[in-house]
Amino acid sequence: MTIHILILGGGAAGILTALKLSAIKSKYGLEVTLVDPKTYFEYTPGIVAVLGTPLDKLEKKYQEITQDYQELLGSWGVNFIQDEVEEVQQSEVILKSQKRLTYTYLIVATGSSYPSPFKPTSTETTYAERLKALKEDRASLESASRVLCVGLGPVGIEMAGELIGTKDLSVIHGSDEVLPGIGGGRLGEKVLSVLKQNDVNLILGEKAEEKSPESFSTVRTFVTDKTRQSVEVEKVYISTGLTPNTKCLEKNFSSFLNKGFVRVNEYFQIPDHSQIFCIGDIIDIGEQKLYFTAHMQAMHLFKNITNLLASQAKGQEPELMPYLGVRLAMVLSIGPSRGIAFIDPVLNVVGFGRGSYIAGAMKWCIERITMHPSTKILVNEVLYFIQKHRSPALKPKDD
Ligand SMILES: Cc1cc2nc3c(=O)[nH]c(=O)nc-3n(C[C@H](O)[C@H](O)[C@H](O)COP(=O)(O)OP(=O)(O)OC[C@H]3O[C@@H](n4cnc5c(N)ncnc54)[C@H](O)[C@@H]3O)c2cc1C
């Protein structure tokens, strides 16, 4: 009997899971299908560098971080359906096209949304549409002299890093701290010192609100909530946080949603629904929402699914391994060639001046590895092995 494994979402978690499952397809008689509303895979951590690339070189840069799903998955024997999942049910999902897909096991990896242009919008489902939107964004950046970044999380840091020295830059961040606690606070301190040394108009501990624009004016005005400072710019990037893409679970699994994030058990299953697994940005666990953690969760889920299938084949009860989290590894770019990095527990790479060339090179290497399926699998195998043999980052559950 064929076992249908259906993966919703082809981002960090979904793609790695699909590639891993393809290797055990024939052994266990699997049919693996991935659904995504877009026709292309986009490597999200590479998008800020694309936004920072001059218009005439942008397409080449963007090509480097995208892959066509049909080509990528087809060559690994995974079916691809371009559609959006609207509703998850007990044994099937309903797509926007009203088509229904049944499953034996479901892996929900629908990730998160971020304000444009950081992630594709619902109208950027083809490569051409997305490229056009990115070019338009870049053109508007090139014609702007004053730019505002709202939010100094990892995305805001990278965006501000791209703009330093090229624009009259303002940054408004809702907290006094940046990357709190990461690397003993050294990474955040480094970011602040880079911004200050480069004459960035930095406003910390305040929230920004946009005043209604004057008609026909290209200038946008933002006012801060405490000291009422006014910032006038032609271009703004908002990166104040992510929104989990879990609308498809709202109808039948709302009791497992916490502010939109899915509550899962230590095996990534929705409690009492052992055939439904959720991984990546959508899950409600005490772990940073990162590409790296999404990959490690995919690796762990793959091991558990393999155990499940092997036990089933022998008619035995499956023994699943609890996920105990991974130690943080974070590499952020500050402009095209520099960056900062932290590898828990001890390695801080902050460099001198505008940041470390080593961290910049690490960011580039990670991108190249991620865009090459076989290398991505191999490297994640090694990283998962290392993580598994370190002390757990999350507390084991009592029950
Ligand atoms: C600009 C930016 C830069 C970042 N940089 C870094 C970095 O340098 N390092 C790092 O570790 N992390 C970084 N992150 C975070 C990282 O990208 C995410 O944590 C990671 O991509 C999460 O993976 P995921 O698979 O859960 O979701 P995603 O990668 O968001 O993928 C989700 C997929 O699901 C699809 N989908 C959505 N809804 C549906 C639906 N209803 N039906 C079917 N498919 C659906 C989407 O189209 C998408 O392809 C960055 C994030 C952003 C926004």
Largest sheet: 6 strands, mixed
* Discrete helix count: 12
What is the number of E strands?
Answer: 25
Tell me, what's the shape? Answer: globular
Structural class: alpha/beta
Give the DSSP E fraction (strand runs of 2 or more residues).
25-35%
Mean pLDDT rating = 94
List unreliable stretches of 5+ residues: none
Computed CA radius of gyration, to the nearest angstrom: 22 Å
* Order of strands in the sheet with most strands: 5-2-1-9-22-21
| Small molecules held by this entry | flavin-adenine dinucleotide
Keywords: FAD, Flavoprotein, Oxidoreductase
Family: Belongs to the FAD-dependent oxidoreductase family.
Protein name: FAD/NAD(P)-binding domain-containing protein
Organism: Basidiobolus ranarum
Detail the topology: elements first, then pairings.
Blueprint lengths: L2 E6 L3 H11 L2 H4 L1 E7 L3 E3 L4 H5 L3 H9 L2 E3 H6 L4 E4 L2 E4 L3 E4 L4 E3 L2 E4 L3 E2 L13 H16 L3 E5 L3 H10 L4 E6 L12 H12 L3 E4 L3 E3 L9 E5 L5 E4 L1 E4 L4 E2 L2 H7 L3 E2 L2 E2 L6 E2 L2 E6 L12 H24 L14 E6 L3 E6 L3 E3 L7 H14 L2 H16 L11
Parallel strand pairs: 1-2, 1-9, 2-5, 9-22, 11-12, 11-17, 12-13
Antiparallel strand pairs: 3-4, 6-7, 7-8, 10-18, 14-15, 15-16, 19-20, 21-22, 23-24, 24-25
Helix pairs in contact: 1-10, 4-6, 10-12
The structure holds flavin-adenine dinucleotide.
Keywords: FAD, Flavoprotein, Oxidoreductase
InterPro entries: FAD/NAD-bd_sf (IPR036188), FAD/NAD-binding_dom (IPR023753)
Protein name: FAD/NAD(P)-binding domain-containing protein
